[in-house]
Design goal:
It is a single chain. The protein is built from 4 helices and 8 strands. It is of the alpha+beta class.
């Protein structure tokens, strides 16, 4: 069962630093989100194929562990282990859910965040690369934002298969 509170606790603990138990990347957003999901109890699977599953093991990791575009497609298609349901709006998300960002609107997703709080119905998110805690989900104040930005909203399924 997905422990949303544990995922959020991890995100609030490590939002502004790196956990030395995990690899760190210059572009660290998806690695951080994967750590949060793992802290919430999400099961890994697919090792040793980097292109399959979602995992970190033996000094290596799947693309979905560390690449925003890969995590976006993993969450959209996974039927085993960590799974999610895509929803239409950010307001449908709860704590521990994930947002994928395509800032240029070119079909290539380049950022991932986790919902760690709500401001009314609006999700607030934590992220790495440019460390953020309880930031408004839309990132409209980011230099990365453009009017072409696209978002995909994922409710993490509470039960794992």
């Amino acid at each position: 069962m997905y422990n949303r509170e544990a995922a959020v606790r991890y995100a609030d603990t490590w939002w502004n630093s790196r956990n030395p138990a995990f690899p760190a990347f210059d572009v660290d957003c998806t690695n951080f989100i994967s750590q949060c999901l793992l802290a919430g109890g999400a099961p890994m699977h697919g090792y040793p194929s980097r292109g399959n599953g979602w995992w970190l093991q033996g000094g290596t990791w799947s693309f979905s562990w560390s690449v925003a575009h890969s995590l976006r497609w993993y969450l959209a298609t996974s039927k085993k282990g960590l799974t999610a349901t895509q929803v239409a709006t950010a307001q449908e998300l709860g704590l521990g859910d994930v947002i994928a960002y395509d800032f240029e609107g070119d079909g290539r997703f380049d950022h991932s965040t986790i919902v760690t709080a709500k401001d009314g119905s609006e999700p607030l998110v934590n992220a790495h690369t440019f460390n953020a805690q309880h930031r408004h989900w839309a990132y409209k104040d980011s230099y990365m934002f453009s009017p072409n930005a696209k978002y995909v909203f994922f409710k993490i399924n509470d039960q794992f298969s």
